[in-house]
C-alpha cells in the first residue's frame, strides 16, 4: 500500500465530515463564480438600461441579476464560514486519529525497538510529521477536489454562452491547475526532501543538546554547538528559499495566465457579439467569470508542494510504526495462574545484534511469596532477567514459565498486571506527587496515597510541604533529592500492590536509618503471598530476604541466606 492509500484508510471513520467539507467548499467556490458572473451581467444590464432609456429598461430585466448577485453573495459567505468550521474540525479529528494510531503501533515496540531511535527524531516524527499528514485533507485533497469539480462546472457554464471562450478557459485552467504546479513541485522535490531531512537531524540534535547542555558547558563545547546549529539552520533556509521562489514563480504565472485568458475570452465574446451570436450583457459576464475561475487553481502550487512534504512525513511515520516488535506478540495469549512461580530452565538469551549471550544455561526457580535477593557484579545479567520477565526481550534457548504458563505466551500487558518494579533508571513525570501516584493507580484515594507514602518513608516530607500531595516534582523529579525520588517510585509500586515486586537497588542514596525503616515498613506492609525480588549490592538489604541468588556470567547460583 502506498502512503496515500494508508492515509485514506486512516481517514475512513471521518469520511462523512470530510465529504461534507468538500461539498461546502465546492458550494462556496461556485457561489463566488456565480457572484462574479452575475455581477458582470448586472453591470452590463445597468449600462444598457442607462444608455437605452425607457425602451431598453423594459427590454432588459435588471432585477433578475440583482437578486442573483445577492443570493450568491449570501450563499458564498455562509458556505465559506461552514466550510471553515467543518473542514478544520475534520482535520483536527484526522490528526488525532493519526496520532492515536501511531501511538498504538509504538506500544509493542517499547522499549527495545524504540531505544534504537533518537528521541528528538521521534518527537519530530510524532509532532511535526503527524501534523503534516493531518494537513493532507485540508491543504492537498480539498484544493485538488474543489479545483477539479469547479473547473469542470465553470467550463460547462462558459460553454453555454461561447464554446471558443470555454475552450480558452479549459486550456488555461489545465495549464495553471496541473502543468505549472507540477513542474514547480518537480523542480523543488529535491529541496523539499532536504528540508525534511535537515529538520529531522536538527530537531534530534537540538533535543540531545538541550538534554546535555550542562555537559556541553562543563566541556567548553557550547560555542561549537552554537555554530553547528547555525550551519544546519542555514542549510534549511537555503532549501526553503528555493522552494518559496519556485512556488512564488508558479503563482505569478497562474495570475498572468488567468488575466490573459480573461482578456482572450473577452476578445472572443466581443467577436461573437459583433457576429450577433452573443448579447452585450454577456461580455463582462464572461470576462469576470473567467477571472473568478482562477481563484480555485490559485492554491494548487502550494498543494503540490505540500503533497511532497506529506509523502515524506508519512514515509517517516509509517517507517517507525511498521518496525516489528522485538518480542513477537503471542498467537494465543495465556494468563498466568496461581501460584505465580517463575521458572527458568537452561535458559539462553542474547540481545539483538549482540554476539554474546547475556544469560546462558541459566536455571532459576522463585516461588510465589518468596523474598529473594539477586546479587552479582555489574554486567552479570540481573537487569536482563527483568527485561525477560516484562517481555521487553525474548530468549532463544531453554524454557521459561511464569504462573504455570510459558512466558512466550504471555504479553507485556499481562505481565505488568502481575509484576511491579522500581527500576534503577525509574522515570517520574512532570507534575505533582499526586499525579505521579495516580499514574500508578488512577483510582487511588488520598488515604491510600498517604499509606503508600508512609511505607516508602516519604509521608513526613510531603506533609511538611505547603502543597502536600500537590507538591511539584519537576521534570524527571528534579525538584526532589535522588533518595526522595526513589522513595516516590517505591510508593508508586506499593500503591499498585502487584503480586510480584522487583526492587532494583531500592535503598540507593538513602542513609542507614531511612534504609532500615524503609525495608522494615515495606516487608511489614506486603501481604504474605507477595513475592519480592530485590537486586542489590547492599549486604544488609540482601540479608533481609529469604534467599540470596548470585548472578555471574549469565547464570544463577544459590548462595543461601546472607550472613
Ligand atoms: N540492550 C542491550 N543490548 C545489548 N547488550 C546488552 C543490553 N543490555 C545489556 N546488555 C549486555 O548484557 C549483559 C548483561 O547486562 P545486564 O544489564 O543484565 O547486567 P546487570 O547485572 O544488570 O548489570 P548492572 O548491575 O550494572 O545493572 C551485559 O554484558 C550487557 O553489556
Q: Kindly identify the CATH topology of the largest domain.
A: ABC transporter transmembrane region fold
Structural class by helix and strand composition: alpha/beta
Low-confidence stretches: none
Give the C-alpha Rg.
35 Å
Order of helices and strands: HHHHHHHHHEEEHEEHEHHHHEHEHEE
Report the bound ligands by name, code or SMILES: adenosine-5'-triphosphate
CATH level-4 homologous superfamily of the largest domain? ABC transporter type 1, transmembrane domain
Percent helix range: 55-70%
Biggest pleated-sheet summary: 6 strands, mixed
CATH classification, class level of the largest domain: Mainly Alpha
The main sheet orders its strands as 6-7-8-3-9-10
Summed up, the domain count is 2
Strand content: 5-15%
Q: End-to-end span in angstroms?
A: 64 Å
Total strand segments: 10
Q: From the coordinates shown, what is the CATH architecture of the largest domain?
A: Up-down Bundle
What's the overall average pLDDT, rounded? 89
Q: Number of helical runs?
A: 17
Shape field? elongated
Pfam families: ABC_membrane, ABC_tran
Domain ABC transmembrane type-1: 19-281
InterPro entries: AAA+_ATPase (IPR003593), ABC1_TM_dom (IPR011527), ABC1_TM_sf (IPR036640), ABC_CydC/D (IPR014223), ABC_transporter-like_ATP-bd (IPR003439), ABC_transporter-like_CS (IPR017871), P-loop_NTPase (IPR027417), Type_1_exporter (IPR039421)
Organism: Acetobacter oryzifermentans
